[in-house]
Amino acid sequence: MASSDVKTTMDEAGLRYKSKTPGSPFKASSSFSGATMSCFLCGKHRPRSLMQTKRVLGKAQPVCAPSCKELEATLKGGG
User: What residues make up the domain containing 67?
Assistant: First the structure.
């Protein structure tokens, strides 16, 4: 539990969070290829260029390419 609990209240404009930074953690991109997707297997967000589509449970799902472990090792410089 946090050392100091922050109480939030609704202000007149409907905003609630005073301590939260505005915006999304995923940068907006005007191009389709710059967008991110979450991997169906590991759940991490990756650029579409690092994803591939595999059939999982009968549906095509985006997953890390070539695999989640190999991609993580490559991105950390161990690969």
Answer: 33-75
For residue 75 the two structure tokens come to: 């991105």
Residues in contact with 8: Cβ distance below 8 Å, sequence separation at least 6, in sequence order: 16, 17, 18, 19
pTM of the entire predicted model: 0.55
Tokens of 25: 């953690």
Euclidean distance between CA atoms 64 and 66, whole angstroms: 6
pLDDT, tens only, 17-51? 666 666 666 665 555 555 888 999 999 988 888 89
Percentage of residues in the chain having pLDDT higher than 90:
27
Total tally of structural domains belonging to the chain: 1
- CATH code assigned at 71: 3.30.60
Domain membership of residue 14 (yes or no) is no
